[in-house]
Amino acid sequence: MRIIVGLLFVSHGRQKISGWFGGQAVPLGSLFGVAGIIEIVLGLLIIIGLFAGYAAFIASGEMAVAYFIGHFQKSFWPLENQGEPAVLFCFMFFVYGDSGRGDLECRCSTRSGRDPNSRKEAYVEAAAMWRNSKARNLNSTSQLKNSKLLNVMIPAVCIGYSNFEIACNLDI
């Protein structure tokens, strides 16, 4: 659901910025232009799952502001003021931002204070687990999901003495 909602959010941003999907392009410096940029950037973060909780929380705030600036003046009720999409996006993003990490989400973790070989050991351990799963013939989706074998760690950046990595949780 997160990916579909993120795609819809990006499409609303593209509608504002470039006039796609029957919209009119607006200047980037205008209120709608800034909203479009925010929707594209946060929507992409939500889709790929990188800092998705934070992005969803900020997107929830943006949609609350959009509702009160653009719709609330006409009427209190979303059905009367055409504010249903803003309310739905606001609460979906709020729930997702509060619920934490989910399937197919990338997250950043700090692995400071560890031995430099710990990353290598983690890869060797993951490869051994993968070989063992092949030997046990884990064919069904439920067996693969329960085995937690699809958790892949990708080294991203080393800053100072801390090793930062992006871990993609691919529990399908």
Write a structural description:
Residues 140-166 have low confidence and may be disordered. The longest helix has 19 residues, at 52-70. The protein has helices spanning 2-18, 31-48, 52-70, 78-81, 84-99, 118-136, 141-147; strands spanning 105-110, 151-159, 162-169. Strands 1-3-2 form a three-stranded antiparallel beta sheet, covered by helices on one side. It has two domains: 2-99, no CATH class; 105-169, no CATH class. It has 172 residues and is an alpha+beta fold. It is elongated, with a radius of gyration of 21 Å. It is built from seven helices and three strands; from the N terminus they run αααααβααββ. Helix content is 58%, strand content 13%. α2 packs antiparallel against α3 and α3 packs antiparallel against α5. A hairpin with a 2-residue loop joins β2 (151-159) and β3 (162-169).
Question: Could you name the key traits of this structure?
Answer:
172 residues, alpha+beta, 2 domains, three-stranded antiparallel sheet, 58% helix, elongated
DSSP strand (E) fraction? 5-15%
Q: In this structure, how is the largest beta sheet organized?
A: 3 strands, antiparallel
How far apart the termini lie comes to 13 Å
Question: Strand order within the widest sheet?
Answer: 1-3-2
Provide the helix percentage.
Answer: 55-70%
Please provide the ordered H/E string of secondary-structure elements: HHHHHEHHEE
Please give the radius of gyration in angstroms: 21 Å
Low-confidence stretches: 140-166
User: Given the helix and strand composition, which structural class is it?
Assistant: alpha+beta
Shape, please?
elongated
* Number of extended strands: 3
**How large is the count of helical segments?**
7
Number of domains: 2
User: Please, what is the average pLDDT?
Assistant: 75
